[in-house]
Write a structure and sequence with these properties.
This protein is α+β, with helices and mostly antiparallel strands. It contains 5 helices and 8 strands. Helix content is 33%, strand content 26%. The protein starts with a helix and ends with a helix. The C terminus is likely disordered.
Length: 144
């Protein structure tokens, strides 16, 4: 499937549109890391219209470095700049992280349909136990 078709299909469990790179873009990267991964299109409005974005020569490196500095464990996204119909957009690809949950400044997010939700302490504990191979019920019974 090509990029234009993905954008035409709209936001989903694995696709997010952002008009700019901001705190919400990093929250989405964290949510994707805590699920099956995904793609963030920067320079694309929520309705799928390509607005474009102006970036400098070092912008992609700066975004990647910033993301890795504010996430724990460290998320290093793959960034790519493309031009469509004279408008520049940035594609941020985020892989599922093997050890979960990933947090942004101490807060964990999960992807629910086409939006991000902050996780509760119970969800965080359960996700961590699942990613390390432990079962919550086993710990609760103290019989492992």
């Amino acid at each position: 499937m090509n990029i234009e078709q993905i954008i035409k299909n709209g936001e989903s469990q694995i696709v997010e549109f952002k008009e700019s790179f901001d705190r919400e873009a990093i929250e989405t990267a964290v949510a994707f890391s805590n699920s099956k991964g995904g793609i963030i299109f920067v320079g694309v409005a929520d309705d799928g219209k390509m607005r474009g974005i102006t970036i400098g020569a070092e912008t992609l490196r700066e975004w990647s470095n910033y993301t890795s500095q504010v996430t724990e464990p460290t998320v290093i996204p793959e960034l790519e700049s493309l031009e469509f119909n004279g408008k520049k957009i940035v594609i941020i690809r985020v892989q599922e992280f093997p050890l979960k949950p990933v947090s942004f400044r101490g807060r964990c997010f999960k992807r629910v349909s086409n939006s991000n939700r902050q996780m509760s302490p119970q969800e965080i504990a359960q996700m961590h136990l699942q990613s390390t191979g432990n079962k919550l019920g086993c710990l609760a019974r103290c019989c492992c």
